[in-house]
Design a protein that fits this description.
By secondary structure, this protein is of the alpha/beta class. 45% of the residues lie in helices and 13% in strands.
């Protein structure tokens, strides 16, 4: 399936990556308000003006860390008069790497949700690791041994160690064996 793409305007509060690769991928292009309309980024410009700039310049969407703007009527009116996808975070992130990683990870899903070219607001969920996210390799080995090989973990481990040792000997790298 072909990945849907688009151009997105980043508001003033959204971090601007220094790496051009993040600003432009195969499917998405991101431009910061300070690059698109520098005169608006210097002064304290209302958020709704940036949304209108995104609409006027033909952007697909508008990305903002400031979800609170959705509590004011002016930004909502500006969004409703556009075909923009408004992307924000459920919980603010103080780390630009996490912010961009989460944004890029969710972009394919965002674009699927946004199909139809009606204005919409998409709130990215808070990614969390739970206790269950941490598993010991020994436990996984036990599961693999029982499920795939109908064997004990001890037997499966012995077979794997033999195969690993054989391969490392073949390629002349026996020192890598644990």
């Amino acid at each position: 399936m072909k990945e849907l793409g688009g151009r997105f305007l980043l508001d003033q509060g959204t971090s601007k990556p220094k790496d051009r690769v993040l600003l432009r991928s195969r499917a998405y292009e991101f431009a910061h308000l300070s690059d698109v309309a520098p005169e608006l980024s210097r002064a304290r410009t209302p958020d709704w003006v940036a949304i209108l700039v995104a609409r006027h310049r033909g952007f697909t969407g508008f990305v903002s860390r400031d979800a609170s703007m959705l509590e004011d009527p002016e930004p909502l009116v500006a969004l409703d008069s556009s075909k923009l996808v408004f992307i924000t975070w459920a919980k603010g992130l103080d780390d630009p790497i996490r912010e961009w990683g989460q944004l890029m990870a969710f972009m394919p899903a965002v674009m699927r949700l946004a199909q139809g070219r009606e204005p919409c607001v998409i709130t990215l969920p808070t990614p969390q690791l739970r206790k269950e996210s941490r598993v010991k390799p020994r436990s996984l080995l036990h599961d693999v041994a029982t499920r795939r090989f109908n064997s004990s973990a001890r037997e499966t481990k012995a077979t794997a160690v033999g195969a690993m040792k054989h391969y490392l000997d073949e390629i002349g790298r026996p020192e890598l064996m644990p």
